[in-house]
Write a structure and sequence with these properties.
Rossmann fold, alpha/beta, 434 Repressor (Amino-terminal Domain), 6-stranded parallel beta sheet, single chain
């Protein structure tokens, strides 16, 4: 830092302010310091900074699996959001125990952790190391935890209402796993919308989020004229099952998914779906966690991110 200060013609304190992204440096001086840092190959020493500040500038991400589209997209979006705020990301899987995942993160001295989707449901019953700050994504609200989730109920309601608005007498539902918060909320939105329209909800067909489960569910939906699928992957499998059964989409059956995965526009036919904003979910979760780490006040510890209907060719 002394060499950078000498090269830039500033004090060591000014270099420190630039390194720590302080607003108390004018743009011309900041540019001069950053140019000197680049010329000298200066990099902040993370371990030394941790000793001085008491923070590792690292946050953990806890998942049970990366096989689902939602989790993999959240991993990418969270890594990008953390990097923008100067934090590194450590990934820990909790296939067997969330408590063990928390212990591993505590041993690595992370400043806090974000828990994703299926793993979030396991948090209330898990023992947490003292002082481990947490934000959970897609979980029921908890008094001692900050929570971020998509508007699953609203998205499911929009999907169901869209199908009813097209003239379908009822809407069948291909639901996600019974222990998933997101799946339960999407099922609730579908059920409440049908009941509000005076329609008895059909028997739910349940899958495990995979395209294989959607394909297997085809036989249980052979009488449906409209199907709301709890995610796009199961919708993809269902489209194949319907095609093999000689049922045309959308002429014979309308199908809606949930997520709006990048390939949804290239399904055959292109899939009408509910779009989740994974980038906003990740940024809001990281914002809440970093605010707590840095001792800033949090205005809202429960954040609901809107979803929206994307209409394509699989419904009519």
């Amino acid at each position: 830092m002394a060499m950078v200060a000498s090269r830039a013609g500033v004090s060591g304190q000014t270099v420190s302010r630039v390194v720590n992204d302080s607003p108390r440096v004018d743009p011309v001086t900041r540019e001069r310091v950053e140019r000197a840092m680049a010329e000298l190959g200066y990099r902040p020493h993370r371990a030394a900074r941790a000793l001085r500040t008491g923070r590792s500038q690292t946050i953990g991400l806890v998942v049970t699996t990366l096989a689902t589209v939602g989790n993999s997209r959240m991993l990418q979006a969270t890594a990008e959001a953390a990097a923008e705020r100067g934090y590194a990301l450590t990934l820990v899987t909790a296939a067997e125990s969330v408590a063990d995942a928390f212990e591993r993160l505590a041993e690595q001295e992370v400043d806090g952790a974000i828990v994703l989707n299926e793993a979030s449901a396991l948090v209330p019953a898990a023992e947490r190391p003292a002082g481990l700050r947490l934000v959970v994504v897609d979980a029921p609200g908890a008094a001692d935890l900050a929570v971020v989730h998509s508007d699953h109920v609203g998205g499911a309601a929009a999907a169901t209402a869209h199908l009813l608005g097209l003239g379908h007498e009822s809407v069948h539902h291909l639901a996600g796993p019974v222990d998933s918060f997101a799946a339960a909320e999407r099922e609730r939105g579908w059920r409440e919308t049908l009941e509000a329209a005076g329609i008895d909800p059909p028997v739910v067909v349940r899958g495990d989020w995979s395209a294989e489960a959607g394909f297997a569910a085809g036989g249980g939906l052979d009488a449906a004229s409209a199907v709301f699928c709890a995610n796009d992957q199961m919708a993809l499998g269902l489209l194949r099952a319907l095609a093999e059964a000689g049922r045309r989409v959308p002429e014979d059956v309308s199908v809606i998914g949930f997520d709006d995965v990048p390939d949804a526009a290239n399904y055959r036919p292109p899939l009408t779906t509910i779009r989740q904003d994974f980038t906003t979910l990740a940024h809001r979760a990281v914002d809440l966690l970093v605010a707590e780490i840095e001792g800033r006040s949090i205005t809202d510890e429960s954040v609901v991110v809107p979803t929206r209907l994307v209409e394509r060719s699989s419904t009519r």
